[in-house]
Q: What sequence folds into this?
Protein backbone atom coordinates (compact mmCIF):
# COMPACT_ATOMS: atom_id res chain seq x y z
CA UNK A 1 0.00 0.00 0.00
CA UNK A 2 1.23 3.47 -0.86
CA UNK A 3 0.08 6.72 0.74
CA UNK A 4 1.26 10.29 1.24
CA UNK A 5 -1.03 10.81 4.22
CA UNK A 6 1.40 11.66 7.03
CA UNK A 7 -1.22 11.15 9.74
CA UNK A 8 -2.07 7.69 8.41
CA UNK A 9 1.60 6.74 8.20
CA UNK A 10 2.20 7.85 11.80
CA UNK A 11 -0.84 5.88 12.98
CA UNK A 12 0.35 2.76 11.16
CA UNK A 13 3.82 3.03 12.67
CA UNK A 14 2.33 3.52 16.13
CA UNK A 15 0.23 0.41 15.76
CA UNK A 16 3.22 -1.61 14.64
CA UNK A 17 5.12 -0.44 17.70
CA UNK A 18 2.20 -1.38 19.97
CA UNK A 19 1.69 -4.83 18.48
CA UNK A 20 2.86 -7.84 20.43
CA UNK A 21 5.11 -10.26 18.61
CA UNK A 22 5.43 -13.96 19.35
CA UNK A 23 8.79 -13.20 20.89
CA UNK A 24 7.25 -10.70 23.32
CA UNK A 25 4.73 -13.23 24.60
CA UNK A 26 7.27 -16.06 24.69
CA UNK A 27 9.65 -13.89 26.70
CA UNK A 28 6.83 -12.97 29.08
CA UNK A 29 6.00 -16.64 29.59
CA UNK A 30 9.57 -17.32 30.70
CA UNK A 31 9.19 -14.85 33.59
CA UNK A 32 7.33 -17.45 35.60
CA UNK A 33 5.28 -16.64 38.66
CA UNK A 34 1.58 -16.82 39.54
CA UNK A 35 0.37 -14.34 36.93
CA UNK A 36 1.94 -16.29 34.07
CA UNK A 37 0.08 -19.34 35.38
CA UNK A 38 -3.13 -17.30 35.56
CA UNK A 39 -2.67 -16.19 31.95
CA UNK A 40 -2.32 -19.81 30.84
CA UNK A 41 -5.37 -20.76 32.88
CA UNK A 42 -7.48 -18.07 31.22
CA UNK A 43 -6.20 -18.83 27.71
CA UNK A 44 -7.33 -22.46 28.12
CA UNK A 45 -10.92 -21.36 28.82
CA UNK A 46 -13.64 -22.67 26.49
CA UNK A 47 -14.18 -19.11 25.25
CA UNK A 48 -10.83 -19.32 23.45
CA UNK A 49 -11.25 -22.93 22.41
CA UNK A 50 -14.75 -22.53 20.98
CA UNK A 51 -15.77 -18.92 20.35
CA UNK A 52 -12.68 -16.98 19.30
CA UNK A 53 -12.13 -17.01 15.54
CA UNK A 54 -8.35 -16.59 15.56
CA UNK A 55 -6.43 -19.73 16.47
CA UNK A 56 -2.99 -18.70 17.72
CA UNK A 57 -2.16 -19.72 21.29
CA UNK A 58 0.12 -16.69 21.50
CA UNK A 59 -2.86 -14.46 20.74
CA UNK A 60 -4.88 -16.28 23.41
CA UNK A 61 -2.12 -15.54 25.92
CA UNK A 62 -1.95 -11.93 24.78
CA UNK A 63 -5.68 -11.34 25.23
CA UNK A 64 -5.72 -13.20 28.55
CA UNK A 65 -2.87 -11.06 29.90
CA UNK A 66 -4.72 -7.88 28.89
CA UNK A 67 -7.96 -9.02 30.53
CA UNK A 68 -6.16 -9.80 33.78
CA UNK A 69 -4.35 -6.47 33.58
CA UNK A 70 -7.63 -4.60 33.08
CA UNK A 71 -9.17 -6.35 36.08
CA UNK A 72 -6.11 -5.42 38.14
CA UNK A 73 -6.15 -1.74 37.16
CA UNK A 74 -9.92 -1.41 37.57
CA UNK A 75 -9.77 -3.01 41.02
CA UNK A 76 -6.76 -1.02 42.20
CA UNK A 77 -7.17 2.34 40.46
CA UNK A 78 -10.78 2.25 39.28
CA UNK A 79 -9.70 3.19 35.77
CA UNK A 80 -8.51 1.74 32.50
CA UNK A 81 -4.79 1.98 31.80
CA UNK A 82 -3.21 1.43 28.38
CA UNK A 83 -2.59 -2.23 27.61
CA UNK A 84 0.80 -1.68 25.99
CA UNK A 85 3.66 -4.18 26.15
CA UNK A 86 5.55 -2.18 28.79
CA UNK A 87 2.61 -2.03 31.19
CA UNK A 88 1.72 -5.70 30.69
CA UNK A 89 5.33 -6.82 31.19
CA UNK A 90 5.65 -4.78 34.40
CA UNK A 91 2.34 -6.18 35.59
CA UNK A 92 3.45 -9.78 35.03
CA UNK A 93 6.82 -9.09 36.67
CA UNK A 94 5.22 -7.50 39.74
CA UNK A 95 3.37 -10.71 40.53
CA UNK A 96 6.63 -12.64 40.21
CA UNK A 97 8.62 -10.35 42.48
CA UNK A 98 6.01 -9.65 45.17
CA UNK A 99 4.96 -12.90 46.80
CA UNK A 100 2.03 -11.30 48.61
CA UNK A 101 0.23 -10.58 45.32
CA UNK A 102 -2.28 -13.25 44.33
CA UNK A 103 -4.01 -13.15 40.94
CA UNK A 104 -6.73 -15.64 41.91
CA UNK A 105 -9.46 -13.04 42.41
CA UNK A 106 -8.72 -11.42 39.04
CA UNK A 107 -8.61 -14.79 37.28
CA UNK A 108 -11.93 -15.84 38.79
CA UNK A 109 -13.53 -12.57 37.71
CA UNK A 110 -12.27 -12.98 34.15
CA UNK A 111 -13.56 -16.56 33.97
CA UNK A 112 -16.94 -15.47 35.33
CA UNK A 113 -17.33 -12.92 32.54
CA UNK A 114 -16.01 -15.25 29.82
CA UNK A 115 -18.65 -17.80 30.85
CA UNK A 116 -21.34 -15.21 30.14
CA UNK A 117 -19.77 -14.41 26.79
CA UNK A 118 -19.75 -18.09 25.82
CA UNK A 119 -23.53 -18.08 26.09
CA UNK A 120 -23.90 -15.30 23.50
CA UNK A 121 -21.20 -15.88 20.88
CA UNK A 122 -21.30 -18.80 18.49
CA UNK A 123 -18.56 -21.29 17.62
CA UNK A 124 -15.66 -19.53 15.86
CA UNK A 125 -17.73 -16.37 15.84
CA UNK A 126 -16.92 -13.79 13.16
CA UNK A 127 -17.63 -11.09 15.75
CA UNK A 128 -14.49 -12.31 17.53
CA UNK A 129 -12.15 -12.19 14.56
CA UNK A 130 -9.51 -10.05 16.29
CA UNK A 131 -8.08 -9.39 19.74
CA UNK A 132 -9.35 -5.82 19.97
CA UNK A 133 -12.98 -6.86 19.53
CA UNK A 134 -12.67 -9.55 22.21
CA UNK A 135 -11.38 -7.04 24.75
CA UNK A 136 -14.04 -4.40 24.04
CA UNK A 137 -16.83 -6.98 24.19
CA UNK A 138 -15.38 -8.25 27.46
CA UNK A 139 -15.68 -4.79 28.99
CA UNK A 140 -19.27 -4.54 27.72
CA UNK A 141 -20.20 -7.85 29.35
CA UNK A 142 -18.37 -6.82 32.51
CA UNK A 143 -20.49 -3.66 32.80
CA UNK A 144 -23.69 -5.58 32.05
CA UNK A 145 -22.90 -8.24 34.64
CA UNK A 146 -22.18 -5.61 37.30
CA UNK A 147 -25.50 -3.88 36.60
CA UNK A 148 -27.62 -6.99 36.14
CA UNK A 149 -28.26 -6.18 32.48
CA UNK A 150 -26.85 -9.23 30.71
CA UNK A 151 -30.21 -9.80 29.05
CA UNK A 152 -29.60 -6.57 27.12
CA UNK A 153 -26.79 -8.21 25.16
CA UNK A 154 -27.69 -10.57 22.33
CA UNK A 155 -25.69 -11.68 19.33
CA UNK A 156 -28.32 -10.19 17.03
CA UNK A 157 -27.88 -6.81 18.66
CA UNK A 158 -24.09 -7.07 18.45
CA UNK A 159 -24.42 -7.83 14.74
CA UNK A 160 -26.77 -4.88 14.32
CA UNK A 161 -24.24 -2.59 15.99
CA UNK A 162 -21.45 -3.87 13.76
CA UNK A 163 -23.56 -3.21 10.66
CA UNK A 164 -24.45 0.26 11.93
CA UNK A 165 -20.75 1.07 12.33
CA UNK A 166 -19.92 -0.34 8.89
CA UNK A 167 -22.75 1.54 7.15
CA UNK A 168 -21.79 4.75 8.90
CA UNK A 169 -18.18 4.33 7.73
CA UNK A 170 -19.41 4.05 4.16
CA UNK A 171 -21.30 7.32 4.63
CA UNK A 172 -18.21 8.97 6.13
CA UNK A 173 -16.10 8.00 3.14
CA UNK A 174 -18.55 9.81 0.87
CA UNK A 175 -19.33 12.80 3.10
CA UNK A 176 -17.91 13.00 6.62
CA UNK A 177 -20.44 15.70 7.53
CA UNK A 178 -23.30 13.24 7.08
CA UNK A 179 -21.76 10.54 9.27
CA UNK A 180 -22.22 9.96 12.98
CA UNK A 181 -19.03 11.14 14.67
CA UNK A 182 -19.09 8.62 17.54
CA UNK A 183 -19.58 5.66 15.20
CA UNK A 184 -16.83 6.96 12.92
CA UNK A 185 -14.46 7.21 15.87
CA UNK A 186 -15.41 3.72 17.02
CA UNK A 187 -14.42 2.28 13.65
CA UNK A 188 -11.23 4.33 13.39
CA UNK A 189 -10.09 3.47 16.90
CA UNK A 190 -10.85 -0.21 16.33
CA UNK A 191 -7.90 -0.30 13.94
CA UNK A 192 -5.50 2.33 15.32
CA UNK A 193 -4.18 3.02 18.81
CA UNK A 194 -6.09 -0.03 20.03
CA UNK A 195 -4.02 -0.41 23.22
CA UNK A 196 -4.33 3.23 24.21
CA UNK A 197 -6.51 3.87 27.28
CA UNK A 198 -8.35 6.74 25.60
CA UNK A 199 -9.12 4.53 22.61
CA UNK A 200 -10.47 1.74 24.80
CA UNK A 201 -12.61 4.13 26.85
CA UNK A 202 -14.01 5.89 23.80
CA UNK A 203 -15.01 2.64 22.11
CA UNK A 204 -16.62 1.15 25.21
CA UNK A 205 -18.52 4.41 25.76
CA UNK A 206 -20.04 4.19 22.28
CA UNK A 207 -20.87 0.51 22.76
CA UNK A 208 -22.47 0.89 26.20
CA UNK A 209 -24.52 3.84 24.95
CA UNK A 210 -25.88 1.69 22.14
CA UNK A 211 -26.83 -1.10 24.56
CA UNK A 212 -28.22 1.40 27.09
CA UNK A 213 -25.84 0.18 29.77
CA UNK A 214 -24.17 2.60 32.16
CA UNK A 215 -20.56 3.27 31.26
CA UNK A 216 -18.39 2.27 34.23
CA UNK A 217 -15.12 3.26 32.62
CA UNK A 218 -14.87 7.03 32.88
A:
Amino acid sequence: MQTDDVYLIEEMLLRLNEAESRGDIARRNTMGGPMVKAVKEISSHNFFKNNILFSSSNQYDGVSAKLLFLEHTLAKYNKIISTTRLYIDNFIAAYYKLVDLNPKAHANRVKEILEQMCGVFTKKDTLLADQEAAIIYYLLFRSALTQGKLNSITRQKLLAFKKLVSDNWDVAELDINKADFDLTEFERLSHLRTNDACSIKERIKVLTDYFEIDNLYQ
Remarks:
- The two ends are 37 Å apart (CA to CA).
- The chain has one domain: 6-211.
